[in-house]
Specification:
about 30% helix; about 25% strand; Peroxisomal Thiolase, Chain A, domain 1; alpha/beta; binds coenzyme A; 2 domains; globular; single chain; five-stranded mixed beta sheet
């Protein structure tokens, strides 16, 4: 038996470790955005998938999606978005303690996109790493940033969702290729005088690991298979999103201690306009709540979709600044994350 001598149960002879404490509250201080420079209309994609502009508009709400050129990588988009967010936050990059990039389209398995970005923007020697949480990655990043600042690990955290999904689509695949776009959204999260980020509701369901998948593994590719591309079981994901994600969204409202009518905006992952409409209906959102519908012209940019939609809503409706927004991301894993935030 250990001889316990201290009042807090510390074993005798064990030196007391110093502890760090952070800020009581956090908030998203500023945002940045970058979209692929080419606007690709449905008609440019329908040939190889035997589809039509009308079908894609009706079933997804997408009219055009943004795609980046061959010479642009996801990290380039991340850099543009990050620089805007840092400038808008009015901080110096050296004040950033952690750089988090959610991405599934880094050009290499390692090293991370985040370390390269930190170097490019002068955020060294910040801790930097990538998050693999697909379309929930931005909400995961905000949850981590919030915790880091509250526990004193960092003063400011740069959270980015950055994807060049056009690199991993097969133009002949009709399950998902036509949905996807390229972009990056960035947020600076920092200390606040008031609560600006409510508790996150997050989780995973690995029983649906193969609902959104890559067509082959790296070893299979090395053995001579074609490049792996992304596919999905569209109806499985659709049903899961509509039934289960609404519950997650409601739990996030509850965790924040607010009701839907107190929201200024609802900004779900931009997966499908029919999913967004169903959310709005089931959450009973009043007309006054603005809804992120960036999917129409941007497509689904995975982890970038929530910050891009938020950035756009704020640009088009400046009255939303300082209001409450419910954001929810969900996707491959399957994974999900939701929280209520105060809009910067
Ligand atoms: C992919 C998605 C748009 C397909 O729409 P859907 O309404 O579910 O389509 P279904 O699979 O039920 O197919 C309906 C019909 O359209 C056809 N179809 C499927 N894909 C098509 C396409 N790309 N173009 C034209 N027709 C298509 C099917 O063959 C089927 O035809 P049939 O009725 O003659 O058999 C939709 O399922 C979806 O958005 N899923 C979730 C997306 C998502 O959240 N993904 C997560 C990534 S983050």
């Amino acid at each position: 038996m250990t001889d316990v001598t201290s009042s807090n149960g510390r074993p005798a002879g064990l030196p007391e470790l110093a502890q760090r404490t952070g800020h009581q509250f956090t908030r998203i201080v500023a945002l940045g955005a970058a979209r692929g420079e080419r606007s690709v209309p449905n008609d440019d994609l329908v040939g190889p998938i035997d589809s039509s502009d009308e079908w894609i508009r009706q079933r997804t709400g997408i009219v055009t999606r943004v795609r980046a050129g061959a010479d642009v990588q996801a990290v380039d988009l991340a850099e543009v978005a990050a620089r805007e967010a840092i400038a808008a936050a009015g901080i110096d990059a050296s004040q950033i303690g952690v750089v988090l990039i959610s991405t599934v389209t880094n050009t290499v398995a390692t090293p991370s996109m985040a370390t390269l970005l930190a170097e490019r923007i002068g955020a060294t020697p910040a801790a930097a790493y990538d998050i693999s949480a697909a379309c929930a990655g931005y909400a995961y990043g905000i949850a981590q940033a919030d915790s880091f600042i509250k526990t004193g690990i960092a003063e400011y955290v740069l959270v980015i969702g950055a994807e060049k999904l056009s690199d991993i689509v097969d133009p002949t695949d009709r399950s998902i290729s036509f949905l996807l776009g390229d972009g990056a959204g960035a947020a600076i999260v920092g200390p606040s005088d008031y609560p600006g980020i409510a508790p996150t509701i997050w989780g995973s369901d690995g029983s649906k690991w193969d609902a959104i998948w890559m067509t082959r593994t790296y070893p299979e590719w090395r053995a001579g298979g074609a490049q792996p591309t992304i596919r999905q079981e569209g109806q499985t994901v659709f049903r899961w999103a509509v039934w289960e994600m609404v519950t997650v969204a409601k739990r996030a409202l509850e965790a924040a201690g607010i009701t839907a009518d107190q929201l200024a905006a609802f900004i779900p992952h931009q997966a499908n306009m029919r999913i967004i409409d169903e959310f709005a209906k089931q959450l009973g959102l009043p007309e006054s709540v603005m809804i992120g519908r960036d999917i129409t012209t941007t497509g689904n940019t995975s982890a970038a979709s929530i910050p891009l939609a938020t950035h756009r809503l704020l640009a088009e409706h400046p009255q939303l600044h300082g209001g409450l927004a419910l954001q929810i991301g969900f996707g491959a894993g399957l994974v999900f994350g939701a929280q209520v935030v105060v809009l910067p």
